[in-house]
Amino acid sequence: MKKILALTLFFSGLLSGCGVAQKQAPFNGAEAWQELEQALRQHYAYLHRSDLDTDALFQEFGARATKATTPQMFADISQQFLRHFTDPHLNLGPYNSEDYSVYPTGSDIYAEFVPTSQAESTNKSDTLKLMVLDVKAGSAADIAGILPGQEVLTIDGLSVKHAVEKVFGEHFGQLTAAQVNYGANISLGGFRNQPRQLTLRRDQHQQALTLAASYDAINTLKDGATVTVRQFGEVGYIRFNNSLGNNETPDAFKAALNQLPESTSLIIDLRNTPSGGNTGVAEPILGHFAQAKSPYQRYQVQQKGTPYSQATMQTAYATPTAPAYPHPFVVLAGHWTGSMGEGMTIGLDALGAKAVVGTPMAKLLGGIKTIQLTKSQTWLEVGFERLYHINGIFREDYRPTILTQSADRDPQGNDPALTAAINILMTSGTLSTSALHSEMH
């Protein structure tokens, strides 16, 4: 009897060790969706700020997500759902090669849909066209010669409308104007680390282009200088190279100021900060422009059981950092000014910038944190902290004091924001027009 029992236990253990007796539980889409929805409703500071019917959106995509049979299927549906909020800070991962590049880091063309004139339209139902409004300086798109004023016809073999529909998993006609523009710019950034195929048109002439992956140009900055320093006559210039998350940047900025002892004014270029950063880097830099402890932004953090509308409004301060910069300064911002770049822009505006020049910024909402979602083996990046200019407007609603049609490139390939800033600051006769053109190129 003991021999039989021993043999039974032996074979039972052998089968278990071979995986025959163990079977993994099937993926539960309903539990995964419940966990995602609860996290958003509890932590997302901007859930009800948009004009979306959020309850209807939860219901529609919840019905799709609960039918998911794998974590990957669930992630793909959830990503489409989150894009409806048009918030580049609202993301779900992990990512793979079939996911879109994260916007705006993985972006080098900014485009919007505009009405098609009756003379241009060959199809009465075709009332919109996608037009390039800006091109990121130094990017693959810039090197390829793409300029504002060109129309985008296809993206990776799809018509622009179908490309947008793929981003959202919705019919084009169901989407808002903000959503279709957001979707177009995500699509233009392409898939992660993959080359892009675009067809564009200018003056009836079509051009097919293959562009390098949108991340390539931004990745090359990791091995370079955190800031670039130049001088235009008596006008100093410091550009951040997507470096607001690098702890070496404050010292590099201080060294840059020390390289400009003869400058009588300064341009601070935040147009290449799409990946954002953190306050530990930003605040020491802001301190060079603070004569005393000074507010640079306001914020709200939700407390348990208290809605954001009732959360205490708090203030963030910059304290003086040596050397102080006592002269006039102008800030450059644009479509690739993101997150902490946006925070520095409104902060420098609050600290007395003579002007902020450029276009509306990337509109990354709030301060973010990452929440692990165990039911779907994913993570959620979510804005839990509402951020404001010190004048009380949401950070994402801030617009430069001097708006330009484009920030990085104009239709002739020139730098419109930098030109405008130099014109504001330049002392009469300090820099001739020909010298200005030479030094800027």
Automatic annotation (TrEMBL):
Pfam families: Peptidase_S41. Residues 1-21 form the signal peptide. GO terms for biological process: proteolysis; signal transduction. Keywords: Signal. The keyword Signal applies. GO terms for cellular component: outer membrane-bounded periplasmic space. Residues 235-392 form the Tail specific protease domain. GO terms for molecular function: endopeptidase activity; serine-type peptidase activity. PANTHER family: CARBOXY-TERMINAL PROCESSING PROTEASE CTPA, TAIL-SPECIFIC PROTEASE. This is Tail specific protease domain-containing protein. It comes from Photobacterium ganghwense. The lineage of its organism: Bacteria, Pseudomonadati, Pseudomonadota, Gammaproteobacteria, Vibrionales.
